[in-house]
Task: structure prediction
Amino acid sequence: MISLSLIKKEEYKEAKSILEFENIEDCFEEGIVYILKDRDEMLGLGKISLEKDYGILKYIVVRDEYRGANLGDALLRVLIYKAESLGIDRVYFRDGDSYLLSNGFLYNGDNLKDTYRLVLNVHDFFNKSCSNCGGKNGF
Result:
């Protein structure tokens, strides 16, 4: 059974090994970090760091052997949902990315455009139609 949960300290070592494979470093201490598991095996993880009134998507990583099953979409959705519950209405990403563009991110045209190429309006994300969830984009 697949589950999503906030990361716990005892899961840091396994999470670090997944990130190291992708050449990503993180200490998991700040921000929102969710892990995706199938029973006891960690399949992936994602992180949004929090600023005063916006979030920054740091990464979404799914192990190679589990890619292609929309697991990254599940991680993205739970991260955005949690950010929204904390009052975040915009989430940024540093680079252009076709996956994120196909999932609601847009090219950034506001005051942080020099730092972050993509932006997501959280309200729009949860109020648009969703082809993978049978209609309304619910959680």
In short: The two ends are 18 Å apart (CA to CA).
